[in-house]
């Protein structure tokens, strides 16, 4: 498959005037990004404690994140609309989390998990990751890990962006362009734009990862797989009866959500493909695999969970927009069939990954996350008492801000909900007539939120800003989904 990438690279030169103009534009942007990243590298010195790169027992790390796939989409979580046998198997032989939370939409989640910081500290705007930030890939690469990312990028930075943020190799969609992501996709592979007529984007990305695993089976590696699936446009997959390899894709259409079923099923298949490659390479027992979703399911999709209809809530800072599946699997290390009911959020990913590798964060890096490695290993540890969220899709000084535990949720503006009974947050509690339990929780949540008073950091815009009508800020607390 790797040789096929090279063949496609040689063939994938489009000589239309539009493409020539676009490439000239991109050359200018690449020069700009290179200067910007060089400056950021001078400011950002990652002082990671030394680790023996030849240490044989350092585990491989694979972090898989589906795109727009909420908690209800996995059978083992009680969902009945989709077939997810490979995810079920990972949960049955590993640890399943029932209270894992992302941000409500794509970019905020990606920024949070890659940097281990809540958005109020480093979020600029949709589609951007500040080049001065430190990512888990940078820390692991410095510690001797080979690093790979494949799937969806959506963080700007030009063709050098993934390298700058710590990835040795990449195969990505939405890096410098946005052609079809599914049939006949246009991707960027290690600095080159490559088109794949008649192919399927998720197959290309997963093949790239499998090839990376085969080529690096003698050293510790990190694979970050931010999947393209199952985000709209809702289209047939190669396993659908209506699949047409010659299709040019459906653009941004959210029509035909019935295909979302096939897309979730194919997501499960792609996860299984990676697991099968680990087995074939003899690496399964030395690899931690974590699966999750980047936010809730699209609002145009209705699923069934525990016998009840459930509408997706992507873009909303509610349970439907932020409650995501999370499964951790590591044969021989994580016990089988464990259901973990503790709170987890996306800031916890960074410290968990580097901690599993035996690497401490740089001395000058302050992380918000709490490693879940002790929980994965079955050790007694103090779980989170609450999660915090600051969310503004397009950045700015203010956003939706709250803290929550598993039962209650308190917003900065004073709204207070029993989310166990009212997960859609339709009826706020009257704070003047609370029962003792609700009052006690309100007091503790207020105290927790006070830790984040006046902590919003406004970072400078790193790239030329291009705002389209679809990027205009929606009303507060009803922020809509996007790419």
Structure description:
The chain crosses the membrane at residues 28-46. Residues 59-359 form the Sulfatase N-terminal domain. The protein has helices at 2-11, 17-43, 85-92, 106-115, 119-122, 136-142, 161-164, 201-215, 259-280, 319-322, 349-356, 373-376, 436-450, and strands at 60-66, 95-101, 146-152, 169-173, 186-189, 192-195, 221-226, 287-293, 302-305, 308-311, 323-329, 338-345, 387-391, 400-404, 408-411, 416-418. The two termini are 28 Å apart. It folds into two domains: 59-243 and 253-380, Alkaline Phosphatase, subunit A (3-Layer(aba) Sandwich), CATH 3.40.720; 389-471, no CATH class. 29% of the residues lie in helices and 18% in strands. The strands form three sheets. It has a ten-stranded mixed beta sheet with strand order 6-5-4-3-7-1-8-11-2-12, sandwiched between helices. The chain is an alpha/beta fold. Residues 1-26, 38-56 and 467-481 have low confidence and may be disordered.
What's the CATH topology name of the largest domain?
Answer: Alkaline Phosphatase, subunit A
The CATH homologous superfamily of the largest domain is named Alkaline Phosphatase, subunit A
> Taking all residues together, what is the mean pLDDT?
89
The 3D shape can be described as globular
Report the radius of gyration as a whole number of Å: 22 Å
Query: What is the structural class?
Result: alpha/beta
Query: Number of domains in the coordinates?
Result: 2
The number of helical elements comes to: 13
What is the CATH class of the largest domain? Alpha Beta
Distance between the termini: 28 Å
How are helices and strands ordered from N to C? HHEHEHHHEHEEEHEHEEEHEEHHEEEEH
Largest sheet: 10 strands, mixed
Low-pLDDT ranges: 1-26, 38-56, 467-481
Order of adjacent strands in the largest pleated sheet: 6-5-4-3-7-1-8-11-2-12
Percent of residues in β-strands = 15-25%
β-strand number: 16
Q: Residue share in helices? A: 25-40%
CATH architecture of the largest domain: 3-Layer(aba) Sandwich
Protein name: Arylsulfatase
Family: Belongs to the sulfatase family.
EC number: 3.1.6.1
Biased composition (Basic residues): 473-483
């Amino acid at each position: 498959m790797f040789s096929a990438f090279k063949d496609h690279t040689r063939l994938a030169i489009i000589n239309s005037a539009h493409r020539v103009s676009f490439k000239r534009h991109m050359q200018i942007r690449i020069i700009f990004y290179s200067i910007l990243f060089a400056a950021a590298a001078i400011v950002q010195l990652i002082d990671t404690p030394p680790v023996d790169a030849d240490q044989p027992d350092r585990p491989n790390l694979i972090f898989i994140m589906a795109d727009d796939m909420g908690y209800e989409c996995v059978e083992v979580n009680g969902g009945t609309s989709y077939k997810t046998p490979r995810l079920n198997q990972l949960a049955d032989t590993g640890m399943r989390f029932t209270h894992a939370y992302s941000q409500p939409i794509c970019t905020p989640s990606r920024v949070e998990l890659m940097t281990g910081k809540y958005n109020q500290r480093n979020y600029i705007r949709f589609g951007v990751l500040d080049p001065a930030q430190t990512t888990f890939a940078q820390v692991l690469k410095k510690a001797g890990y080979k690093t790979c990312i494949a799937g969806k990028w959506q963080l700007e930075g030009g063709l050098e962006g993934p390298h700058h943020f710590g990835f040795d190799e990449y195969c990505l969609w939405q890096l410098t362009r946005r052609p079809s992501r599914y049939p006949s996709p246009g991707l960027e592979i290690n600095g080159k734009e490559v088109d794949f007529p008649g192919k399927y984007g998720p197959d290309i990305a997963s093949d790239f990862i499998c090839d990376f695993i085969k080529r690096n089976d003698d050293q510790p590696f990190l694979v970050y797989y931010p999947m393209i699936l199952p985000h709209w446009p809702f289209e047939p997959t190669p396993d659908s009866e209506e699949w047409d390899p010659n299709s040019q894709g459906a653009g941004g259409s959210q029509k035909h959500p019935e295909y979302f079923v096939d897309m979730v099923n194919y997501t499960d298949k792609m996860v299984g493909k990676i697991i099968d490659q680990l087995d074939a390479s003899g690496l399964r027992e030395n690899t931690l695999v974590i699966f999750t979703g980047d936010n809730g399911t699209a609002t145009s999709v209705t699923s069934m969970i525990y016998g009840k209809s459930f509408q997706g809530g992507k873009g909303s800072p509610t349970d439907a927009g932020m409650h995501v599946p999370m499964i951790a699997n590591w044969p021989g290390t994580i016990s089988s069939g464990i259901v973990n009911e503790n709170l987890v959020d996306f800031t916890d990913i960074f410290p968990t990954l580097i901690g599993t590798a035996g690497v401490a964060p740089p001395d000058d890096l302050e992380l918000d996350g709490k490693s879940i490695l002790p929980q994965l290993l079955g050790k007694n540890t103090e779980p989170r008492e609450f999660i915090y969220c600051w969310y503004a899709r397009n950045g700015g000084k203010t956003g939706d801000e709250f803290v929550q535990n598993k039962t209650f949720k308190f917003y900065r503006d004073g709204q207070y909900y029993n989310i166990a009974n009212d997960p859609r947050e339709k009826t706020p509690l009257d704070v003047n007539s609370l029962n003792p339990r609700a009052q006690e929780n309100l007091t503790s949540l207020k105290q927790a939120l006070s830790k984040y008073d006046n902590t919003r950091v406004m970072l400078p815009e790193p790239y030329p800003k291009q705002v389209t009508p679809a990027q205009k800020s929606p009303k507060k607390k009803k922020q809509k989904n996007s790419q």
